[in-house]
Design goal:
2 copies of one chain form a homodimer. With 320 residues, the first copy, chain A, is α/β, with parallel strands linked by helices. Chain A has 2 domains: 104 residues, no CATH class; 167 residues, 3-Layer(aba) Sandwich (Rossmann fold). Helix content of chain A is 32%, strand content 22%. In chain A, α2 packs across α7, α3 runs parallel beside α6 and α4 crosses α7.
């Protein structure tokens, strides 16, 4: 089966499903939204940037940051969770920015969310949408706190592919991210001097313990030497961080005409040095703000709301 | 690689990880617990029953139900979330019952939780622990509201196996559930006359849309006929419901010496009749209480807290 990329020149978000046209109603069940119950065009038609992340609290914090950075009225503390009717996903809209939690960890959670989010953007007739996954990740040979912009997402065999089971067949999809967007994000990072940012490969695993070579799970059948040899192979292939969603995110967004990027901070640790996460809470919280800060700067530049004079403010923001 | 089941005759919960003994501290990061920060034996040593489910609200509701059914003091409304320091998992303890949310949907979420939960039970020196996953599921040829107790969990190729990626190898694990427990649960169900309960096979898919043959995702490359043919093959193989976690749950629990069962209510719909979920909210809420009610009865019987005179109460509970 061959699948073509979704860009069609008009900037619209594409669904690739011939069945949708014949449905009289589309219930976005896990988002608690629908085409008959909500006017999606009015609610979401102006969306230009979507940020996706794992933790509901973090995505609310990002929405509040954007509220402040875009200079909107009020303190943003009472931002409404658009998906409040479900205890799965959380979603906040701040001007042209949508901040949405992927609910849990790994491919199934983000996959369900992406299917329904993309249909939402399609129904709302959004165009020229940029989507960025911001997250924490484990690091390979780089220091905690480093931000990695993914150029290529690889699977646990270090291949740039995403294997999607469709019915009982396996279809191989290309996890392509937007090259221009990657460069643009790196350029933004050069204006922030408080943390290192790199463009590198990201490895996506199916799980956190055995799949990532963690020695600390309830089950572990390999030696420390085998673990290190595996991580070394990944390092030599260009991988600098490990998470659990990048390949499916890149594959689905690419097929549907969204400009997509993955920006993760190395939060856990340098996996060559250990597996257990013992950094103080406040250090982790500061690390988690770094991708948010980078994306905030990127969005403000796109909206013409940024100038050099704000650099001092940014430094102040990071240090407080 | 061969892996043996975990039962060792002493009823203890087993970890199968030689590295754990040499760790001076075990941080159960995603649960916000640890061996140095918490006295796990005091907190959890009396646990005999663990119930796992997808939704934090539902698992809180189950804990409150158990609080009432075990006749504990107070109304249970202020039950404390033991994992409150994280916005990932939620956990409530009610006497010997632990109710824990698996955070999100699919294998990665439940796998992380199981690794840390099993280490928790191990550190707490728990023994003779029964673990039951209660959930919603899609139905195959059976009516919504039916409760399915899984005898065999199969993957999307209809094989009773769980393929675990360890480093970059695939290890095939047996998703075995406890046969005696399955029968015992069915016997319990015979005392509840308000909903049908069956023992059948359950199919575990990697995702909700393309993997389950849903026609309503952002991407769909197959016809309705192909979808129905696939579901028919599953039906003919004995599958009556579809969810996203059963094989990994059965495999990990079986390896670690936990008596495990999966009890799902068919909540979504009979997939032969459509894909979109349009049942009224209150109907879905009542369905979701059915597995909880069955497990509550099972636990009360084990604790000697149940007699025939309560049947009328049960019927009242279900109808109100």
């Amino acid at each position: 089966m061959t699948e073509r990329k979704g860009y069609a020149g008009n900037g619209l978000v594409h669904v690739k499903n011939p069945h949708l046209d014949s449905m009289d109603e589309d219930v976005l069940y896990h988002l608690n939204l629908g085409t008959k119950t909500h006017n999606l065009t009015v609610m979401f038609g102006d969306i230009k940037f979507v940020c996706v992340g794992g933790s509901p609290n973090r995505m609310k914090a990002f929405a509040q940051l954007m509220h402040k950075e875009l200079g909107l009225e009020g303190d943003g503390k009472d931002l409404k969770d658009i998906c409040a009717g479900t205890d799965r996903y959380s979603m906040y809209k701040v001007g042209p920015v949508l901040s949405i939690s992927q609910h849990g960890m790994g491919i199934p959670c983000i996959s369900i969310m992406l299917h329904e989010l993309i249909k939402l953007l399609h129904h709302a007739k959004c165009h020229d949408v940029t989507i960025i996954r911001i997250s924490t990740s484990g690091g390979l040979g780089i220091d905690p706190g480093t931000v990695v912009i993914t150029d290529i997402a690889v699977d646990s065999s270090l291949k740039a592919r995403f294997e999607q089971v469709i019915l009982d067949n396996i279809v191989v999809r290309s996890p392509e991210l937007d090259k221009d967007l990657v460069e643009e994000l790196l350029n933004c990072s050069k204006e922030i001097h408080d943390f290192p940012t790199l463009i590198r490969h990201t490895m996506r695993t199916y799980d956190f313990y055995e799949g990532q070579g963690q020695l600390g799970g309830a089950l572990c059948s390999f030696s420390n030497e085998k673990k290190l040899a595996y991580l070394k192979r990944a390092y030599n292939a260009g991988v600098r961080n490990i998470e659990m969603e990048s390949t499916v995110f890149a594959a689905i967004c690419g097929l549907c005409g969204l400009k997509a990027a993955v920006v993760c901070v190395v939060c856990v640790l340098n996996r060559f040095e250990g597996d257990q996460m013992k950094a103080p809470h406040e250090v982790l919280v500061e690390y988690q703000r770094r991708p948010q800060h980078l994306i905030s700067l990127f969005i403000k530049k796109h909206l013409g709301l940024y100038n050099q004079m704000e650099l001092l403010d940014n430094a102040f923001f990071l240090n407080n």
